[in-house]
Design a protein that fits this description.
Layout lengths: L7 E8 L5 H5 L3 E6 L4 E7 L3 H10 L3 E6 L10 H8 L8 H7 L1
Antiparallel strand pairs: 1-3, 1-4, 2-3
Length: 101
């Protein structure tokens, strides 16, 4: 038996009221709910994202549906680590001191 990992996509669903959480639970995996700002982060299979957006927009309690940008962000930070580990060049502050004094 082989383990198959499905690619997932986050969808942010802005709602008017959180009373309809049971309906959203049936659509995908709820990752986070903001009671104060009234939005839900929902994960669905990447192959079903477009159909799910249309379906969610059809609900009367949904204000707006947005895709998460998490999958579009490059999570490779090798270039940042290289900049941090490089030794900074020693700067000569004599010119700055003579200008002040």
């Amino acid at each position: 038996m082989e383990l198959v990992i499905n690619e997932r996509q986050g969808i942010i669903v802005w709602v008017y009221s959180l009373k309809h959480m049971k309906t959203l639970k049936k659509q995908g995996l709820i990752h986070y709910v903001s009671k104060r700002m009234k939005y839900v982060v929902l994960y669905v299979n990447r192959s079903e994202v477009e159909a799910m957006e249309k379906k969610l927009n059809s609900f009367h309690f949904v204000r707006k549906v947005e895709r998460s940008y998490r999958t579009d962000i490059n999570m490779n930070f090798d270039h940042v680590l290289e900049e941090i580990t490089q030794k900074p060049e020693e700067k000569c502050y004599e010119n700055e001191v003579s200008e002040i004094g």
